[in-house]
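Is this the right way to post structure tokens for a design question? Let me know if I should format differently. Anyway, here goes:
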């Protein structure tokens, strides 16, 4: 997959970035170790889909088993020299908006290639 000229460098790299971001936040929220997927380990969309299906299943399982009161639990993360605090609900929303942002970006790149992207709407 060729470099796209913006963002993460290629459609593959953007997809892996989105997947890694979801995987990072799930590991953070579950307080487990995060292991980043390396972009060069994915040679086609099928390998990305296989890996992402496992990440998505993990996310779905987390949400399904999350007690409602835990949505309001405040978590904190260090970013550089500052600490950012947020609720679990806001972190889940962040995952969704991050993916939505990049899906729109990918749709634009696909159109630049003269192709018609898949519908990125949620409904």
């Amino acid at each position: 997959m060729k470099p796209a000229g913006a963002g993460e460098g290629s459609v593959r790299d953007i997809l892996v970035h989105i997947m890694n971001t979801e995987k990072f936040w799930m590991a953070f929220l579950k307080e487990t170790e995060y292991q980043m997927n390396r972009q060069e380990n994915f040679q086609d969309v099928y390998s990305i889909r296989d890996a992402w299906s496992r990440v998505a299943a993990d996310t779905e399982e987390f949400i399904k088993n999350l007690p409602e009161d835990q949505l309001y639990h405040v978590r904190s993360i260090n970013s550089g020299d500052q600490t950012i605090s947020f609720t679990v609900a806001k972190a889940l929303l962040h995952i969704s908006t991050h993916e939505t942002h990049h899906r729109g970006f990918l749709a634009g790149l696909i159109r630049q290639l003269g192709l018609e992207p898949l519908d990125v709407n949620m409904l």
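Format looks fine. Someone answered above. Worth noting: The mean pLDDT is 91. Strands lie at 74-79, 82-87.
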